[in-house]
Amino acid sequence: MKSYSKSPVCNFAPGTKIVGKWHNKPYKIIKQLGSGATGSVYLADSQDGRIALKIGINNMAITSEVNVLKHFSKVQGQVLGPSLLDVDDLVSGGNQYPFYVMEYLKGQELLQFIQKRGDEWIGILVVQLLGDLDRLHRAGWVFGDLKPDNLIVVGPPARIRWFDVGGTTLLGRSIKEYTEFYDRGYWGQGTRKAEPSYDLFAVAMIMINCCYPSRFEKKSEKGIEQLKEAITAKSSLRPYEGVLMKALQGRYEHAQEMRKELVDAISSHTTYKPKPKRSQQRQAKRKRERKQKSSVFVEIFLVVSFILLAYILYLFGQLM
């Protein structure tokens, strides 16, 4: 999992043993994975193996996140977020902290995966992400703070998953948390109202981010034109230009619309050509060598035939 990249609210050292106040389940802290505005996330050992444990100081915030994870578990189809395993309180230093336990997702961060495996994976993984977002939106939620930091690729087979549901918001409400680069309000392309198009703008920005890992700052006089220039400047993004611009301009009402057009774009502009296997390469090499040898033999035959014909003509001339 990825860190939250915010200031910590509570710290528990590696090796700390935690026992839930109500369920009496023991956990042993291995390391901190990160901190957010509502709590800190730790990798921990449990009776059932490695888990991710989030400890907070705000009961309402933690309860809200727990409710989101519970809703995710009720959505039909593939699991949207990490599975919720336990909810409890712990007492430490005279203070009581709420916490919840979730599935530990082991994998690679999205940007690392793309850099290692190649840009051809951008479209494939985003198609998966859009399918999950469609199910989330139909369940009445918007992810809100959608960004590569909250996405991880597990597998094989490669499968994109998300975590850190702190920014998830009910449809129609104001977005609770956002990161400027992925926020349409920052780019002047709409409000921060929780609706599908808000998440789809972020999806487009994630695709751009995959080709610009360091991101870039907004030029106040450019806005949407700056993003268009960024897309056309990268050969890996140009096949998706139409889809990206529609998402950035809020012209998709549902994730499924964007998903369908992205699939069409991938089919029409295949940017990935698998390398031939070594056996295929050897066969191709032998074929070229046979062809070259055959060409040489033909040339030798023609030269010899020409010399023989000339000699015969010479002899015939001598007899005359």
Descriptive account of the structure:
- With 320 residues, the chain is of the alpha+beta class.
- The chain has 2 domains: 17-103, Phosphorylase Kinase, domain 1 (2-Layer Sandwich), CATH 3.30.200; 108-268, Orthogonal Bundle (Transferase(Phosphotransferase), domain 1), CATH 1.10.510.10.
- It has 8 helices and 11 strands.
- The chain has helices at residues 59-74, 110-117, 121-138, 196-211, 224-232, 241-248, 255-268, 278-319, and strands at 17-19, 26-36, 39-46, 49-56, 84-92, 95-103, 108-109, 141-142, 151-154, 159-162, 169-170.
- The strands form 3 sheets. Strands 1-2-3-4-6-5 form a 6-stranded antiparallel beta sheet, with helices on one face.
- Strand 9 (151-154) and strand 10 (159-162) form a beta hairpin.
- Helix 3 runs antiparallel to helix 7, helix 4 packs across helix 6 (241-248) and helix 5 (224-232) runs antiparallel to helix 6.
Main traits of this protein?
about 325 residues; alpha+beta; Phosphorylase Kinase, domain 1; Transferase(Phosphotransferase), domain 1; 2 domains; six-stranded antiparallel β-sheet; three-stranded antiparallel β-sheet
Principal-axis shape equals globular
| Span of the ends, CA to CA | 97 Å
Q: How many domains is the backbone divided into?
A: 2
CATH topology of the largest domain: Transferase(Phosphotransferase), domain 1
Count of separate DSSP helical elements = 8
**Proportion in β-strands:** 15-25%
CATH superfamily of the largest domain: Transferase(Phosphotransferase) domain 1
